[in-house]
Amino acid sequence: MRIIPHSVKKYGKVSFGKNCIVGEYSILGYPYVESEKSFKKIDKTLIGNNCVIGSYVIIYEGTVIGDGTFIEDYCRIGAEVKIGEKCRIMYAANISSETTLGDDCIIAGFCCERAIVGNKVRLFGELIHSHREPNRDWDEVEEDSPKISDNVLIGFGAKVIGGISIGKNSYIAAGAIVTRNVPEAHVVTGINKKVHFRKWKGRLRTSPFFLESR
Length: 214
What we know:
- By secondary structure, this protein is mainly β.
- Helices cover 0% and strands 31% of the residues.
């Protein structure tokens, strides 16, 4: 069974699995219209089995959505995004082009282009580029993106900036700003020079150490 209202707009090749539901006024397979990649041929948009896509969602072309994923209303999914199985993309989340998400993720914030997110990640903050060359043309710069390992939680208002890695089983507290790599299984709180890492007492050792900003 598929429920796809007449108000849904499809561009190019869009493939649905079994038992998919799409809400009113969503746009699927929308053309990628960014500088040198504009209107180049991209693989078709694939939506897996048992997926639910809400109303007013935009999914750009070449995106692949795994089985059992639920995308809530007003979300934006960029071109050539890979979303794993059984993910939940929360209301108005923004996932930029060429991002990869693992399985069982909950995404409620912002993912910059080419971010890599592991399995069972809960992202309520932002993954963003460092913008170290602001005077160069926007389309000439391709900065490294954050890499988030499995079982990480990133709280509301937290920002993970630049091509850094967050180790698995780590917890980035709400409002934290992180500009350096985070080791496995650490809690991160604070902003810039006040940022400190301590072992997550619930799982590992407890001795703290401090991290200066770049």
